[in-house]
Amino acid sequence: MENYTSFIIANDALGDPARLKSMIDENGYLFLRGVAPKEKLLTLRRDILDLCANAGWLDQKADVMDGIWSGAGPYTEGDPEFMKVYRHVIHLPSFEAAPEDEGLMSVVGKVTGDPVLLHRRKIGRITFPQNIGQTIPAHQDFYYIRGAAETYTVWIPLGDCPMELGGLAILKGSNKEGFIDHRKFSGRNVPFGLEDDQLPHQEWHASGFEFGDALMFHSHTVHKALPNLTANQLRLSIDNRYQRGGTAIEPSSMGTHYDL
Ligand SMILES: O=C(O)CCC(=O)C(=O)O
User: Fold this and answer.
1) Which one in 21, 33, 96, 156 has a CA-CA gap of 20 to 30 Å to 40?
2) Mean pLDDT value across residues 37-65
3) pTM beyond 0.85
4) Would you call 189 exposed, middle or buried from its count of C-beta atoms within 10 A (0-12, 13-18, 19+)?
């Protein structure tokens, strides 16, 4: 595993929106312990894992909620087998409900300002173990979402996510570089990204997540997924985008992921 500086925990600033904003402006992210809606996330975890079990992706001998891989696949975004399951994930009521949680939206609003607008293009990830070549490379979400740069992603795992299960790493302060044009990569599920020579430095921050933790970052913040290095656990997470209502937004942010 590469060397990462631990995330700076921002909970101390939750009562002081100006400080939260200055932390996210300075570091490019806020790592917030325990702010995500656990009940709703547990329901969502159960719903997604039931779909995975029906698809034959889970070890039938283990508890469904443990998300233990059967050895099928591995599949990833774009594969027909994956998309057959993902189409159902996108339309789960629990998938809609978790990012709309009032408590979570009020935390987000301290940074975006009110009213908070949640993109309809909600994203869920099911990351298979040892599928390292498919790990999402360094990129800025602005490449995909455009519209107002002051748009923020909130990434939340649906369970504990120690680093070996593959969370997210943030290039500290990279939001201050503005948008960096992305290069075309070949042979990956994410065909565009940023290579090391395009990055201002290599100061990556990352930590394990406990269930309920959330990572919020600016659309210009460079980030990348960490590989799922476990032998047999699926990593489940959601990532949603929020901005202040009335600021610029592209039509694609108002449709479902892959228009499923
Ligand atoms: O969860 C992942 O693997 C990647 C997520 C990501 O890159 C994002 O939320 O923008």
Assistant:
1) 21
2) 98
3) yes
4) middle
What is the C-alpha separation between 41 and 199, in angstroms, rounded? 34
Give distance in angstroms: CA of 156 to centre of ligand 1: 10
Centroid of ligand 1 to alpha carbon of 119 (angstroms): 15
Contact assessment for residue 205 and residue 60, using Cβ atoms and an 8 Å cutoff: no
Other C-beta atoms within 10 Å of 50: how many?
Answer: 15
Tokens 């498919």 correspond to 134
Give domain limits for the chain. Answer: 11-244
Which superfamily is assigned to 11-244 in CATH?
Answer: q2cbj1_9rhob like domain (2.60.120.620)
Q: Which amino acid is at 104?
A: L
- Give the Cα separation of 120 and 115 in Å (integer): 15
Looking at ligand 1, which residue's alpha carbon is closest to its atom 9? 239
Q: Encode pLDDT of 201-214 as tens digits.
A: 999 999 999 999 99
